[in-house]
Specification:
mainly alpha
């Protein structure tokens, strides 16, 4: 019986040894096939950081796009206005075309300005943890929007009403009250658009500084 017991013990030992070697081989195979990954907490943090980086890139793109549309529209409008008054057969017709284009430009500007402010506030929240409502670039954009609103609903409708009341504005004597008022409003309209353009360039600089 003793030899049998010893043989059985040896056989069990051999089996356990083989099982241990099999487990080690299996573990080695899995380590080779599946490289060791970082802890789950790190992966989640890295994923959250990547999402924030993508979000900030999108917000930067929207800020730049809105300024490009607004400022580009102003420059294109100035060229178009000069071309219209030099090519069209009458100044009255040119004024009608320019007035219609100016109204569309104002709506583009309002949409671009609101988009910029929303994107800039969200960008500040993601990058600095605060919305920075009183940032200089926000004040500049609000001033640009205010001037655009004044031009769209304060000056342009009055110029249109004066043009409609007297007909061909160039046929009205220069000293006529309607002609004097129209010319004064026209000067204000030009100065406002120039002011918005200069403020837009300031906004571009402040935005570029923010990205640094």
């Amino acid at each position: 019986m003793v030899p049998n017991a010893m043989q059985t013990q040896a056989a069990l030992g051999e089996i356990l040894t083989r099982l241990n070697r099999l487990d080690e081989a299996n573990a080695a195979f899995h380590r080779a096939a599946c490289p060791r990954t970082r802890p789950t907490g790190y992966s989640l943090a890295r994923f959250s950081s990547d999402v924030d980086n993508v979000g900030m890139s999108i917000l930067r793109f929207l800020m730049i796009l809105s300024l490009a549309v607004w400022i580009g529209g102003l420059i294109f409008f100035a060229v178009t206005a000069q071309t219209a008054f030099s090519v069209l057969p009458s100044r009255h017709l040119a004024g009608s075309v320019v007035g219609s284009a100016l109204g569309k430009l104002h709506w583009m500007a309002l949409i671009s300005g609101i988009l910029y402010l929303a994107s800039s506030i969200a960008y500040s929240k993601l990058s600095a943890g605060s919305v920075h409502i009183f940032a200089a670039r926000h004040f500049v954009l609000i001033l640009m929007l205010a001037l655009t609103v004044i031009s769209q609903w304060g000056i342009t409708p009055r110029m249109g009403a004066l043009r409609a009341s007297v007909g061909e504005i160039d046929n009205v004597p220069p000293t006529h009250p309607a002609r004097v008022q129209f010319n004064r409003l026209h000067v204000w309209s030009e100065q406002i658009e120039k002011g918005v353009l200069l403020l837009g360039l300031v906004a571009v600089y402040l935005t570029a500084s923010q990205f640094n």
